[in-house]
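Folding problem:
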Amino acid sequence: GRLYARALALQADWAEVQHRAGIVQIMQGDGSGGGPRLRRAAELEPSNLEYGVHAEGWAALARDRNDASPAARSLREYLVVSHRQAAGVLAKRGRTEEAVLQLRKAVELDPDRADLQEEIGITLASLGRGGEAMAAFEAALRRNPGLAASHNNLGFLLLQAGQRDAAMAHFREALRLAPDFELARNNLSQAVSPRR
């Protein structure tokens, strides 16, 4: 945010910086500041289709958060990708809690994306928050029951929680979906014959 503010102070008519600053503001929850920046970018560079679509998309989303117009869908997807990229950078820097928040913001924009729920589950599991991770994997599977990795990950957490039968059912489903999924095969083997 501060970098874009400095760049805009130097050259307020720089369309790319107006656009990126607007996206950052919207990602931070400041749509009233970000929306006009998107509009300004489109005005400064009317030949840039992306700027125009995002400005139009923000106007549509400001009227109705669930707007399904092509412009609103385009901006929503752009924001989802931006939140996901921010989560990846934060996770690599060890700022995993902030990464989870970015992923949750992405889910707010596109609640039907099972892959985002799966990513939240993986991140929460890495923090040792098994219960929350299980809920995220279950949410992913409600949206897409064909995610073998989510079945395996949920099974692993269930096994850790002592729910062996439920864990085995998820490992078996992961293997049905992806017969060559070696990790699920190993997890099922461990669940079937636990170490004493």
In short: The mean pLDDT is 89.
